[in-house]
Amino acid sequence: MPRPNGEPSADRISAVIADHLHLEGPLLPMLHAMQEEFGHVPQAAVDPIAAALNIGKAEVHGVISFYHDFREAPAGRHVVKICRAEACQSVGGDTLAEATLAKLGLDWHGTTRNGAVTIEPVYCLGLCACAPAAMVDGKVVGRVDEAKMATILKEAGA
Amino acid sequence: MKIYVPRDSAAKALGADDVAAAIAAEAKRRGDAVEIVRNGSRGMIWLEPLVEVEKDGTRRAYGPVSPAEVPALLDGTLGTLGRVEDIPFFARQTRLTFARVGVTDPLSLADYEAHGGLVGLRRALGMTAADIVAEVTASGLRGRGGAGFPTGIKWETVRKAGGERKYIVCNADEGDSGTFADRMIMEGDPFTLIEGMVIAGLGTGATKGYVYIRSEYPDAIEVMEAAVRAARGAGILGAGVLGSGHAFDMEIRMGAGAYVCGEETSLLNSLEGKRGIVRAKPPLPALEGLFGKPTVVNNVLSLATVPVIFEKGAGHYAGFGLGRSKGTMPIQIAGNVKHGGLFETAFGLPLGELVNDIGGGTASGRPVKAVQVGGPLGAYMPVSKFDTPFGYEEFDGQGGLIGHAGVVVFDDTADMLKMARFAMEFCAVESCGKCTPCRIGAVRGVETIDRIRRGDADAKGILTDLCETMKDGSLCALGGFTPFPVMSALTHFPDDFAHHKEAAE
């Protein structure tokens, strides 16, 4: 999972934009790159993106807010995504998710007070034959039970 | 000694990376010369990490292997499963689309060619565009993403469309719960998808391709990107495909977590850098698709099946199947099931045989209650419908759909009212917002199911009516098909929707 590399400067934002201008339909790759670079899509990027692509600021904002992936603020140091989809539910994924949230005192998308872990829902990781599934900073984990989740959270410093 | 340890996400999720590292460390300690190949998964997920050791030309399988068992594995004292090909789950399959997955090194072009890769493309290069499309039409291949539209007809529309720029777009936004075949083939045999896209380009006159992969699949994205680079380096992609005068190149693009982008028109909007809002049809994407140009939008499995059709001939492929469902389908058996995984077989196998004989029943050992086929928009099939043969029309006739062929098994502890509520909740979260029946209907659906749960018997009629409206009035399958899981749950499992006060009395 991308880590915030400090405050976004105008120069770094311009550099990310410039890297993607040659693409057809550059906006999504550009936003992904912003998030990779800064840990979120900074508000300060909206104006320069709109100017570079000759679209309205509202349209840029509309795209950022439409997709679940894009954050307007950085996440915790680690992101744990827990699958909520049907195959995971069939083997207790919902119970696992509820227990995890309750243990941390969080709601979905919440971050632990020490900033270590953000818990997010995900709808299918394609690990439906080894459910319940989770993803920790881009790394997949299958057959997650409460013990496995406890280890994950401990390692992440939650 | 060659040792195969899958790099497939499911294998990794069950510890394959640790096993591979343990093998490398142990081999080094012993001074053994061991070559570790990170192959795709053989598809028997309950046996992952499934390790194969090749000695004297024979591959013996072991699994599931833990890092602690690695010394025994190298000693040859670990109990073996024998050859993968002899394991009943595998032996019963007909592998056409998945023929190479798990067998080869996914990123070795030499391996790919040694196992039939590029034979189809070379044949296609000697054919006219019209003949290429005719071959696909003759194979009977239908869209594997769920809609089941004949692939050849789609290609023909694009071939005949005018214009200098056309596109091949691969829909790899495999968001349906219970499905992972796209992911497995991209991670396990990426060149077959590339080859299929190049053939699609030759057949339609398109010179540019995009694979839109969901961001939830970082491993698949990594493998596909490496494969595209390798294919470009080998001249399979570029200004002259395999030295011919035909140009074709492609790019991998990453989605951003919107389920609705699996719908082809919202996928196109997303690729263009817009919100993933569904477009009204017509115009068909085949005529006005990506950036308004004629575009083939095909699912990963459809495109990945094209090479074998050209390698073995349309007749060979069409020889498998049932009725208008021709060829084979990589079925994904998942959820609460003993033997989950990928099972490619000719259409026509009864659902019950898939669940009970091949899947071995539930993992929990409890009786099967329901099976959701076709993802979150698919119907919950009760055990009484287990004789339904696996085919597009056959499932349609039973009020269901096969979709992307995901089969999710639930045992008798499943609360079908809860599952119906989840279907509505999911639709509400993922609705693109363009049409009212989906955007508002899904929210009202959750509320109405909550009323039923509170014991309001009148709410059942309202839910039924609401589902009718969503089915008839929604712009795409998200709002239009959410009634499938909801109504199938309500119809087949009425006890779960019974008046809770009555039940208490």
- pLDDT < 50 stretches of chain A: none
Number of strands of chain B: 15
Provide mean pLDDT of chain A, rounded: 95
CATH architecture level-2 label of the largest domain in chain A: 3-Layer(aba) Sandwich
Q: In CATH, what is the homologous superfamily of the largest domain in chain B?
A: NADH-ubiquinone oxidoreductase 51kDa subunit
| Helix proportion range of chain B | 40-55%
Description:
- The complex is a heterodimer of chains A (158) and B (505).
- Chain A has 158 residues and is of the alpha+beta class.
- Chain A folds into 2 domains: 10-66, no CATH class; 78-156, 3-Layer(aba) Sandwich (Glutaredoxin).
- Helices cover 43% and strands 11% of the residues of chain A.
- Chain A has 7 helices and 4 strands; from the N terminus they run H-H-H-H-E-H-H-E-E-E-H.
- Chain A has helices at 10-20, 27-38, 46-53, 57-66, 86-89, 93-104, 146-156; strands at residues 78-83, 117-122, 134-136, 139-141.
- In chain A, strands 2-1-3-4 form a 4-stranded mixed β-sheet.
- In chain A, a hairpin with a 2-residue loop joins strand 3 and strand 4.
- The longest helix of chain A has 12 residues, at 27-38.
- Chain A is elongated and about 50 Å long.
- The mean pLDDT of chain A is 95.
- With 505 residues, chain B is α/β, with parallel strands linked by helices.
- Chain B folds into 4 domains: 2-91, Glutaredoxin, CATH 3.40.30; 109-318, NADH-ubiquinone oxidoreductase 51kDa subunit (Rossmann fold), CATH 3.40.50.11540; 321-411, Ubiquitin-like (UB roll), CATH 3.10.20; 416-504, NADH-ubiquinone oxidoreductase 51kDa subunit, iron-sulphur binding domain (de novo design (two linked rop proteins)).
- Chain B has 22 helices and 15 strands.
- Chain B has helices at residues 9-13, 16-30, 70-75, 88-91, 109-114, 119-125, 129-139, 151-160, 181-188, 190-204, 218-233, 264-271, 300-312, 314-318, 351-358, 392-397, 416-430, 436-453, 459-473, 477-481, 483-492, 500-504, and strands at 2-4, 35-37, 51-55, 58-62, 167-172, 208-213, 249-254, 295-299, 321-322, 325-326, 328-335, 341-346, 368-373, 380-382, 406-411.
- In chain B, the strands form 4 sheets. Chain B has a 5-stranded mixed β-sheet. A 4-stranded mixed β-sheet of chain B has the order 2-1-3-4, with helices on one face.
- In chain B, a hairpin with a 2-residue loop joins strand 3 and strand 4 (58-62).
- Chains A and B meet through helix 2, helix 4, helix 5 and strand 4 of A and helix 1, strand 7, strand 11, strand 15 and helix 17 of B.
